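Model it.
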Amino acid sequence: MRAPLLGMAAVFVALWCAYYAVSEPGPRVSPWVSPLPSHAVAAGYRAFVATAPGRAIPAWPEAVMERWPPKADGPILIDRRHTVKQPETSALGLNSYGYDDMHGLSRAFDPARRAGVPLVPFTGEITAMRLAGASAVFINLPSGDRPGLRWSEVLALDAFVRAGGGLMFLTDHTNCYFHGELLSPLASRLGLTLRPVTAADRGPERTLSPSTVAWIRVVPAPQDHPVLRGVSAFGFMTGGSATGDPAQGWRVLATTSPKGWADVWTPHRRDDSSGFTGDLKRDAATEPNEEVPVMLAAERGRGRVLVFADQNALGATLIGFEDGAKLFANALSWLTGRPIPYEPRQPNTVTTLTGPRYLCTSVSDFAYRTLQLHLDRLSAASAVESFCTAWAPTDSASLLVLPESWREDLPARLAAARSVVIVLDSADAQAPQLAAAVGLTLTAPGSPIAGLRWLKPLPAPPLPVLADPPEFEPLSPAPWGLSAIEGWEVLAEDGAGRPVIVRRVEADRQTVVLLDAALVKNGLLGGERDRPHKLPPEGQAASRVALRLMSGLVGEWR
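Modeled.
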């Protein structure tokens, strides 16, 4: 027995020596911060550190790709090994108030689903055999509580791209969830540097909220690239940055404005979150104004790579801002090499028209993010897409018109729409002009008077917050006055009998006007991450008003 065992051992040693001779070791990643913040350790954000890079044979994935190359009609493989947060199946529903659903990626992938592109998640290691025959690989924002990338996975992805495949991966601000460290072996292989910073910007045309510099409006410089066709702007919700080596084919597709800056990471500034940030204040000595890159693309071999530096920009509640949805559909089409047709804001969609300060995406108290979230929930439940735009044209048949949204083409848009909800703010100098466009003449707003009572409630979805509402809502409206309401019916009035919500119905057209915007602003509505029935009475009442107003725009619920 000894001789056969010795022979087998010799064969094993010979094979190991041969493997060692032709393989190469993966780089060990030096920690970006040490020690890890205590909350990160407690939450398990050490898994990637414990992953040994291992060794890999570079020629093996290349041989597999030569035999079974990527195919344009193959599936998009979705990595579920290194990332599980806000996946492509996470959708915003009628009762969705959790973070993962509010920022889930299901809506972003809908155009690919409609185009018949198979989406195939996988949980095992990335291997050349797993990638064989696929069209592209999508890696959502990796998380440090998941395994790190082994060197064999890096080489398999690189060989896949060089053979004609597409690769898109998401980064984010600073090193949140330790994604930057986790991705660094792949980034280095591809000629990328992932910067532990937050992309910040200034100015009403470059931010989504006057109260923050990190929620920004990205306006790509004009350039001929398939990913940017039909894209004039998109939103970032505290995103990051990456730089690429031009010698390795990297091209910047979008940046902040020249007034932007890369806000530096302060790892131990907070000890209660792994979503690291800096102080979001520009230090003139260390953080110069610059055009911070936020999206990069490269053609590598016969394939393509796209780096997009914000996960939430593609989530359910921001993908509809400006051209975000179009951008992502373009990206998947470019990466796979197959057409994924998609045109947002078609007649069967709902479009929110907004102004430079009163943005639907703004976190400011005087803006309308929570109202937009209610509209997004109802839209998802009724299979009607919703979008928000301050600048792009729209032909949608259903319009939500927010303050400061006046534009020369607005009367024609209102006349063509079948369903319109207009929100009038007493602080908006354009309110009389907007009201006149639908045949109303305003007089000065009145003082707040307690109570709001529905005379003819609009239809509403089956939600707990709408069950058994009080006769008088605990609100104190201060509505615009009306010189006449001939042809209009009063849907709701305040405690003094003044009209607060009015409606006009003509044939198959409906126009609803809310005469006091304060009732649906963030400052009163708010709390979108809590279920409405847990809000204070005023917040519950505001939610009831908002949901009834929005329900008329989307129709039936599934």
